[in-house]
Amino acid sequence: MGTARALVRACRPRQWIKNLLVLAAPGAAGALGSPDTLLTCAAVFALFCAAASGTYLLNDVHDADRDRAHARKRHRPVASGALPVPVAVTAGAVLGAAAPLASLALGDPLLTGLVTGYVLLTLAYTRRLKDVVVCDLVVVAACHVLRAAAGGAAVGVPLTSWFVIVVSLAALLVVVGKREAELRAFRDAGASAAAPVRETLRGYTVTYLAQTRTMASAAMIVTYCLWALDRGDASQPVFHAVSIVPFIMFVLRYNLLVDRGAGEEPEEIALRDRPLQVTLVSLAALVGLGIHL
């Protein structure tokens, strides 16, 4: 029972919230009202949960020694010894291979390609790319974009340029905020702290990451405003235009939280910060009204 519980913990179910990105493209297209679409999206969500958990397990095995030097990550099941390495490797390999194979049942080659690409990219990230400055930011952001693209592919929703740009910038914002919070935490630990878990932290400065975060935020706001104002003309409801308000509030709130040092675990922010949740619900409601009215 102890090993089973440790295995579940190592799969990081709290981080499955990231896989809700598969709903983004169908939601933006107003396609979530169909039961068949919802069922397909649920299947794609499950595929990415399996794929992500598999790569988390393999990543934890690869990083076990470095995780033991981290105040929080040393409690992860593999690093702490609660989950045997052979079990983690076997489960990770099975889940990582099962996701692309299971995607074949949905009958969409593009979806299978995207799920396979996600698994391969995350494995490359674990083995090498996570230690390459700047490249690590782009790779993690790309994984988020692949989730969103897979949701659109599964239900036959083409991705617009606006959608891809906003999602890409939002993903970059989250990843950069995470690195900035990690770097701040490492520096706050003092000069006597052990080497950083992420080697790339040696190549970044807080100023650079903060500037990159500002750039991503500004570009994302401008892109979203152009999309919303283009859709909210005189012949359409103004809900898209009004949605600019909660969108900007969301970006401002997230940047404030990161500046306070709370961005190290983005999923925890999404699950616990009530103002952020309110702005997201308001944004979704206004966009939904603009689509369906």
Descriptive overview:
It is a multi-pass membrane protein. Its main location: membrane. There is one protein chain. By secondary structure, this protein is mostly helical. Helices cover 71% and strands 0% of the residues. It has helices at residues 2-10, 24-28, 35-62, 64-67, 77-80, 85-103, 109-127, 135-155, 161-188, 206-231, 239-242, 244-259, 266-272, 274-292. Helix 6 (85-103) packs antiparallel against helix 7 (109-127). The longest helix has 28 residues, at 35-62. It starts with a helix and ends with a helix.
Q: Output the radius of gyration.
A: 20 Å
Biggest sheet statistics: none
Number of helices: 14
Please provide the ordered H/E string of secondary-structure elements. HHHHHHHHHHHHHH
Form type: globular
Membrane topology: Multi-pass membrane protein
InterPro entries: UbiA_prenyltransferase, UbiA_sf
EC number: 2.4.2.45
Enzyme class: transferase
Explain briefly what this protein structure is.
This protein is mostly helical and 293 residues long. Helix content is 71%, strand content 0%.
